[in-house]
Specification:
Arc Repressor Mutant, subunit A; Beta Polymerase, domain 2; 4-stranded mixed sheet; globular; disordered C terminus
Length: about 220
């Protein structure tokens, strides 16, 4: 069992959503397919997860809870890296989608950043309104600040990484890009065009890569795809 008391093993188990493929999990935790495949084999051999025809599922939920406590202890003591900032939300087991600055960040494959620094790195996510208290409790467990609807001043939060939650009462659509759940491209473009001067570089990247006619009618251009 000592062989699976490892941060990578914990990340895999915590990030699993029933039916996930190995490739989806590898993308979620930022590891290579082969590295993740090897760990899935080891976790399956110890009956912690099962790799079935319909995807991966958790078998030992007690072990999952132990992993959750272990990672919460680690992150509450150490500085959270930018890479881990995009892994941790997967551990919550609740639906979310990157939005606002992070929608631009995800849709440009990390090619566009704005108004963030190493010392002040908010991550913007949409969540279901009914889950908001659970999200706040989840981040508290990890020793990470989270606010609702509005980015706080850097002096008002502890640590470099923090989360800004946007509760949605009517649900929301989620697309996947580079292993990250994100609001649909059309919605992201709508958000960016509302503050176009700040997002112009991102809009140029998106217009080129996704063949979106943003200067004209980006809705009709994307609907035609």
């Amino acid at each position: 069992m000592e062989d699976v008391i490892d941060a990578t093993a914990a990340k895999i188990v915590l990030a699993v959503k029933r039916g996930d493929s190995i490739n989806r999990i590898a993308n979620k935790i930022g590891k290579s397919y082969s590295w993740t495949y090897d760990w899935v084999d080891r976790l399956e051999a110890t009956d912690i997860i099962a790799n079935t025809e319909t995807g991966i599922q958790i078998v030992d939920h007690g072990m999952r809870q132990q992993y959750a406590e272990m990672m919460a202890a680690v992150y509450s003591r150490d500085t959270v890296s930018q890479e881990d900032a995009y892994i941790i939300p997967h551990f919550a087991g609740m639906e979310f989608a990157y939005t606002e600055i992070d929608a631009a960040y995800v849709w440009t494959h990390g090619g566009y950043q704005i108004a963030r620094s190493h010392d002040d790195y908010p991550v913007f996510i949409q969540v279901r309104d009914q889950d908001i208290e659970r999200w706040l409790a989840f981040f508290e467990q990890y020793g990470i600040d989270a606010t609702i609807d509005e980015r706080p001043d850097a002096s008002e939060v502890d640590g470099n990484v923090h989360y800004v939650l946007f509760p949605q009462s009517d649900g929301f659509e989620v697309e996947w890009m580079d292993g990250s759940p994100v609001i649909p491209l059309a919605t992201a473009v709508d958000q960016m065009t509302q503050n176009r001067p700040a997002y112009e570089p991102a809009l140029e990247i998106i217009a080129t890569e996704y063949d979106v006619d943003i200067d004209a009618s980006h809705h009709s251009a994307m609907d035609a795809d």
